[in-house]
Amino acid sequence: MWWTLRVKRPRWTPEAFSGEDVPMPALRHHARTAACRTVLLLLTTLAVVAQKPAEGPAPGELKLQTEMQKLAAQQAQWCLEHRQCEEGLRVLAEAGESPAVAKLKKALESATPAVESPLLPVKRKEWRQRRAVLGLQLMSAALKAQALARAQAAFVSVREDLEPARAVKALVELVRAARDDKDVALASRILLTAESALSDSKERLLMRTVREELALREGVLLKAEGRPMVAWVALPVGWKAGAKDVAVQVALEGAGSNFLGALRNFRQQRGERNVILVVPCTLSNTNALDAARYPDYDAATLAANEARDGRRFDFDAQGLTGILEVLRRDYGAAPRFSVTGFSGGGMLTWWWILHRPADLEHALLACGNFQGPPPADKPEFTAPGPDIHLLIGEKDGFNEEVFGQKPGIIGQTDAGEAAARAFGLSRITRRVISGAGHDSFAAEVWKLHDPLRR
User: How far is residue 378 from each of residues 94, 210, 357, measured CA to CA in Å?
Assistant: First the structure.
């Protein structure tokens, strides 16, 4: 590693950086002092760098990975000898890539399969026990290297091979490691995995504590009970256990489906406001359901909601209702909530305004889309209903049309406003934000929570 020191002459002493004049007789003394401090800083920096965990797997991890690949190859070889071809090809997928593995694969593909050997169940049990031992050793080595992602991957690879009690113990180790990890997405997903597996009161308390710490530090994923939906949640800075009637702001992301990014943006602009921030991972906000943008939903869930025939609104509404119930039970959330929808997130915002306005404190549409038709029956609410704020960017490129299709944001906002007014929802204000483009207007959202604006 090369280090470059840039020195401004002739005044390069510590005092020079503070703007103070240095008497000439003291210059040499200060120069020696500065040099000593520079060397000390360099040594300290190198020591810190030396303490950082390696980017790639440590030698111990690589050795264990090789042992697991050898085990897979040994399994496949046994299967070839006993013509258990389907089993052999399945386990060979974990043997890595090498000429020997390629040769073994070709032999399995060309062999004539036999009926299942009576020895196969015994061998499976033996292999699973060995895989479990190696997998847990690999997980421990990764945790020692402070590589939580690799530790989780090691656990997942052998979870089905573990006895239930040992799987729980491993999950507790991962939860403890997640506590201090900077990757909140990874830490959150470990907690979601642990949630259904940990039943002991001490384990549940640990999981709840870690979840609260993450939610206060940056954000954490919560899952609705009995529903597949998950949502990013950030607790306010001053939140403490036992809090009551804490305001809730739901922020619905647009078609980009960058839910964690939306959480970070709104959280940063929330400041010290005592409001729980919720960014649900919705489906109605976008077009095609790209699995890469929805890592917390399985393929079956996405496939079941691919059609845009109303089922996405059902998924989102039921899921968000479940998330809010968890927030009220565990975090003291208020009975009603505020909602904002940016771009495609406007779909569910308008849905809630027109179907369940009594749930809302207020709503803000930020360059929001609207999809009709409105419900046939007027929803129940106390007149005049919640405050509804419609914000449009003056220079939004989607104002007139959206990807060549009309109406654009202005026309869709007109349709949504007309539907709301037809139901008697009259507390509606509309503004065009000068100079703004297609924007979530997060700062405007938070102003609505300030006492003088309420």
Answer: 58, 44, 10
